[in-house]
Design goal:
mainly alpha; single chain; 63% helix; Arc Repressor Mutant, subunit A
Length: 163
Amino acid sequence: METDEPRWLDDEEQQTWLAMVSMLVRFPAALDAQLQRDAGISHFEYQVLAGLSMAPEHTLRMSDLADFAEASLSRLSHTAKRLENKGWLTRTPDPTDGRFTLATLTGAGWEKVTTTAPGHVAEVRRLLIDPLTKTQSKQLREISRRVNDAIGPQPDCPQGRTG
């Protein structure tokens, strides 16, 4: 029986792969460290708050927020409970369809995300934007889109920016 031999990476491809793997591990850790140090929240918690801050009426269905935050509904529910306990969001049944739960950013949550955003954006700029030329930034955007397309459909982002 014949088996197909794997298409092994050549030296240059392996260097690309290892550089990207290193970045995939180190970049989120660096963002998380900055947010923990400066705001006492994780990057995931910030994503949840930021997603709500960009949504109409600062409200999203939990399932849509989970898609935006690239998380399971279970993970989001645990995080939403912590954020709710801090007074930063509320959860209520969706009045148009009781099978869904709405998450809404509170006034205190809005204050938390707006006071946290400048430091987060500065860190994103320091780590990702400033080290690249405009051409490299455009290339990275296109590369990211192509890789995301190869992975599969991606949920739409609420209007605005997260950092």
